[in-house]
Structure formats: C-alpha cells, structure tokens
Amino acid sequence: MLHIVNGDIVAEKLKQGVVPGDVLVWREIYSEGPVFLDPSDPAARSVRADYLEKAMGIPRKEYIEGCESQEQKLRRFKDYDEIVLWFEHDLFDQTMLCYLLYWFSKQKMGQTRLNLLCIGDFTGIERFRGLGQLSVEQMGTLSGTWHLVKRRELEVGRAYWEAFTSSDPRGLAKLLQEDSSALPFVRNAFRFHLSRFPSVQDGLGKVERTTLEFIAQGLNQPMELFWQVSDELHEFGMGDLQYWWILKQMASGTQPLIRFDGAEAAIPSYIDPSEDFRHRRILLTDTGRRVQDGKEDWVVVNMIDCWLGGVHLLEKERVWRWDEQEESIV
C-alpha cells in the first residue's frame, strides 16, 4: 500500500504505526506561481523553478531534483495493490489532489486500486485547519475510512486541473457553476483562488485586501499579521513563505501599499529565515490608504506582474479581474 500525503508532519505521524505501507509526501505549492498542465515538461518546470527561487528562495536545483524524485516514485504505482490519497479542503491541498487525479485519469491502473481520504473537519476540533493538527491517535481513527475513487471524481479533478492551468481563467469560473459534488471541497477552494485576482472594485486580491484591513486595525507585526490573515482566509492553506512574498509585492513598485518600518532586514526565504524581519513594523502608505478607501485602483496606479495558476497578469496586457458579486472573471 502507498499513501500519498500533503506534508511531512502528516507523513511522520502515519509512519508511527497508523497505517501499513509506504508514504510519499507530495512536495509542491501549486497554489503559488506559474502552473502548467504537465508540470513534468522540462520547459514548464524551468519557468516554475525560476519563479520559486526568486519568490521564496527555493533553490532551483533542489526543487527540480525533488520533483523528479517524487514523479519517479509515482510512476511505480503499479508496485502497489492500493494507493491512498490523503488531502484536506483548502486550496493548497485541492490543487495537489486535482493534479494527482488528472495524472491518474490518464493511467491504466491494472490491479491497483486508487482510494481517497479528503476531509474538511474532525470531531472534537472546533477550528479544523488540516491533517497536521491531528494526533497520532486521531490519525489512527481515519485509517480505513477512505473510499475507492470513482470515474466522476477523476473527471472533476481533471476538469479543475485543466481549467486551473489554463491561461484563460474564464473556464475555471464556469466550472464553479457546474456540479462538482463528487469532490465536495473543490468548488470553494477554487472560488477562493479566483478571489485572488485583482478585484473590479479596487484592483486588490483577497489576501492583499484582508492584509490592509488588519493593518488598519493596528496589527503591524509580520508574524501577527500572518497568523491573523491565514486564519481568516483558512480556505487558502497559505504558508508563511507565500505570505512573505505577498508582503514583498505589496511593498514594491512605484506606489506600494505598505512599507516596512525600522532597521533594514531581508524578507525571510526558504534558505534565510531572517529573524530580524519578524520584529519590523508594517505600515500603510498613502497609496494603501487611498486604495483601501476606494479612491484608487492598485492595478491602475502600480505595476502588476504575477502568476495565478496558468494566468500571467502583466500591466501592459489585458488584466483579468474578479467580480465578487457576479462570481465571474472579466
């Protein structure tokens, strides 16, 4: 039996006698940076590796070697009678789940059975954020509760992955209107993804707007902000390195939204924790206040250059925006 899981914490707990078999941690952050239909394509991987090294300091060589290693293990899936996918409800997990369902939908499974365990809550935990919260004993209660993946689950996962990696986000918005009950968490997760696009109202994505709101309330320490924003937007499943990169983008450009007060300190990255950064204050700029008050549009007054799934938003090109009320991309 092979268990494919969403992180090292979950893997270590499963290895403590919770389940029989091998454990493969799927190490990816598809919710960050450029994502392509076939991530194993060398050209696509090169673009993604460059981005992740720039954004979060993940060494290019380490990233590429890690991807190749996990893909080699995945291709040996027929060595196992059963495979179990362990995932959660948030965007971080749902992107991984949809990719794996897309990949398995193209395989001839032979005698290997593909199973799924995907949860959004757990009895006794009021604010469930993920499998990593659970104790070894609690994880043990999930053993055997998975179910055989059916054709409809493969179809929905494949459709969402194809739409997520498309350069035209309207297909993903259209999917939100269709029946996706075979994967009960996929709609909310990818609806949140679309809310990260610049809003038609102010040019802000949901993470940036929520950050400005908390700063305006007086929260100005990086770690304090990270915990509050990630808790408020729990459907994102955002990691701290992702958030530091978002803050860096908010503080960049000709008219930034925020500024860092105090002594100069590097933004933390994968290879540099930069502890001094955690003690700096984050303040709104005049532009940040005007955008928050609805007097400016951030895309109009500042440069935009970012990736959301398969969509590359550039200032000099048509910029896709999210209309919250209509739940549509325009």
List the helices and strands and how they pair.
Layout: E1 2-5, H1 8-14, E2 22-25, E3 33-34, H2 42-56, H3 60-75, E4 82-88, H4 91-105, E5 113-119, H5 136-140, E6 147-148, H6 151-164, H7 170-175, H8 186-195, H9 206-216, H10 222-232, H11 240-250, E7 258-261, E8 281-284, H12 286-292, H13 298-301, E9 305-309, E10 311-314, E11 322-323, E12 328-329
Parallel strand pairs: 1-2, 1-4, 3-9, 4-5
Antiparallel strand pairs: 5-6, 7-8, 9-10, 11-12
Helix pairs in contact: 2-3, 4-6, 4-8, 9-10
Structure in words:
- The protein has 330 residues and is α/β, with parallel strands linked by helices.
- It has 2 domains: 2-167, 3-Layer(aba) Sandwich (Rossmann fold); 199-303, Arc Repressor Mutant, subunit A (Orthogonal Bundle), CATH 1.10.10.
- The protein contains 13 helices and 12 strands.
Labels describing this entry:
five-stranded mixed β-sheet, Arc Repressor Mutant, subunit A, globular, Rossmann fold, 14% strand, 2 domains, alpha/beta, 13 helices, 330 residues, 12 strands
Name the poorly predicted regions: none
Q: How much of the polypeptide forms β-strand, as a percent range?
A: 5-15%
Give the N-to-C terminal Cα separation.
45 Å
Shape descriptor reads: globular
- Elements, N to C (H/E): EHEEHHEHEHEHHHHHHEEHHEEEE
Q: In the residues, how many domains can be counted? A: 2
Number of strands: 12
The CATH class name of the largest domain reads Alpha Beta
Tally the helices: 13
CATH third-tier fold name of the largest domain: Rossmann fold
Q: What spatial order of strands do you see in the largest sheet?
A: 2-1-4-5-6
Q: Do you know the CATH architecture of the largest domain?
A: 3-Layer(aba) Sandwich
